[in-house]
């Protein structure tokens, strides 16, 4: 038992010593950082990091900036309403309709078997996608319904029918376009930013902290008295070894990030989805335009003919 107590005391003493040493290093590095910000340390007193490290650091910064800027714009594909003209008004109407349906169905289910009249259950309205292609398709359907009620044989009705058919195809392609971009571009780019790039940047922060600790140790060695010279010298040597080790780790991690082919593959998926969508759009609109042009020529001919009589 006595041996165990001595061992426990030794561990406690060791932990306290290690904690105090860690606290002192942190304090010294913070002081060193403050002096550098205030210009109280000359450039020749700063430990120079390897040129390879600096080059990799600049490239990783550029890679991170690229990911952040692309994601800032491309995140629009997470919300299908990004090109919808009247989303706010319709969202309010949809919300009111949803609440009304929910209340009615709740009453229908809970008033059965009571003396109160139970309303008939109401089927919720089918979900309407809020994209510009869907809006144009629905507008075409409404126009055809109105025109057909007034005339059974009308060239404008036929033209709008062709136009609506094209936008129906485009609307379906638009949903697939956005889904592909979310899965094949946004998600992996965000993951690369939050994992690989983030890990490399944390390794760089460790290098910066180690460099500050080394320079602080060098300053302490300069001002150390004869009795503390040896301990201060050992502290500098240990700090140098730590910086070398952390720099090597950071260099390897940054190389791994920069050599990763995934960002290019993800970008290829983005442009493939965009190309497919625009190709589908061009094909659908081209077919509709040919049909509408024939109707336009025919209508103009009939109009001129009627004016000549």
The CATH H-level homologous superfamily of the largest domain: Arfaptin homology (AH) domain/BAR domain
The CATH class assignment of the largest domain is Mainly Alpha
Instruction: Report the sheet-strand fraction.
Output: under 5%
Rg to the nearest angstrom? 35 Å
Task: Write a structural description.
It is a single chain. Helix content is 81%, strand content 0%. It is mainly α and 309 residues long. It is rod-shaped. The N and C termini lie far apart (123 Å). The chain contains seven helices and no strands. It has two domains: 51-84 and 130-308, Up-down Bundle (Substrate Binding Domain Of Dnak, Chain:A, Domain 2), CATH 1.20.1270; 86-125.
Summarize this entry quickly.
With 309 residues, the chain is an all-alpha fold. It is 81% helix and 0% strand.
Secondary structure topology:
Elements: H1 2-37, H2 51-74, H3 87-110, H4 132-150, H5 155-223, H6 229-259, H7 262-308
Primary descriptors:
single chain; mainly alpha; Substrate Binding Domain Of Dnak, Chain:A, Domain 2; 2 domains; 7 helices
């Amino acid at each position: 038992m006595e041996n165990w107590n001595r061992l426990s005391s030794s561990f406690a003493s060791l932990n306290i010593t290690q904690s105090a040493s860690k606290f002192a290093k942190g304090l010294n590095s913070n002081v060193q950082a403050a002096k550098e910000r205030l210009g109280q340390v000359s450039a020749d007193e700063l430990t120079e990091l390897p040129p390879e490290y600096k080059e990799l650091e600049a490239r990783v910064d550029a890679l991170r900036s690229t990911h952040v800027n692309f994601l800032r714009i491309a995140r629009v594909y997470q919300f299908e309403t990004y090109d919808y003209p009247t989303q706010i008004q319709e969202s309010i109407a949809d919300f009111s309709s949803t609440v009304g349906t929910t209340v009615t169905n709740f009453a229908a289910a809970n008033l059965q078997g009571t003396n109160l009249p139970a309303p008939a259950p109401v089927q919720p309205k089918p979900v309407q996608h809020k994209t510009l292609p869907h809006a144009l398709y629905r507008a075409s359907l409404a126009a055809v319904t109105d025109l057909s009620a007034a005339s059974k044989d009308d060239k404008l009705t036929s033209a709008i029918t062709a136009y609506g058919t094209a936008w129906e195809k485009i609307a379906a392609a638009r949903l697939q376009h956005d889904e592909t971009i979310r899965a094949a571009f946004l998600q992996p780019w965000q993951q690369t930013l939050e994992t690989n790039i983030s890990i490399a940047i944390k390794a760089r922060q460790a290098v910066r902290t180690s460099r500050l600790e080394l320079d602080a140790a060098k300053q302490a060695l300069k001002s150390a008295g004869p009795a503390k010279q040896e301990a201060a010298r050992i502290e500098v040597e240990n700090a140098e070894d730590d910086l070398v080790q952390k720099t090597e780790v950071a260099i390897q991690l940054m190389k791994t990030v920069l050599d990763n082919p995934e960002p290019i593959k993800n970008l290829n998926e983005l442009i493939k989805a965009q190309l497919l969508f625009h190709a589908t759009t061009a094909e659908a609109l081209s077919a509709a335009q040919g049909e509408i042009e024939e109707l336009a020529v025919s209508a103009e001919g009939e109009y001129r003919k009627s004016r000549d009589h």
